[in-house]
User: Fold Protein Wnt from Penaeus vannamei.
Amino acid sequence: MPLAESIATGAQTGMSECERQFTWDRWNCPPQAFTKLHEGEPATRERSFMHAITAAGVVFTITKNCSRGELEGCSCSGGQGGRRRDWKWDGCSENVEFGSRITSSSWTRSRQARTQRHS
Assistant:
């Protein structure tokens, strides 16, 4: 699975979760609000939540796809925490650090691209 597809899927996951959490509220996280996330607009609680939940969805999706072996350039998390030495680890720990790093760099590149377009 290409990284861009994981990012898009994760963003959709975040938007769906936002809609679910605000289903019964006056502001119900409408889909068109996600297309209006631009720099320079005043910060609001809603906009902050939308950024956070979308980023969380992207980190979650990238991390899951990485641990399933569906993304190139990532590997299992190397840490085993405080587990006993006689316990044999078999499997792939979720590499949340990789998911966070990719999400952060994607957000930065997106912000820089928008800034250059408006300059």
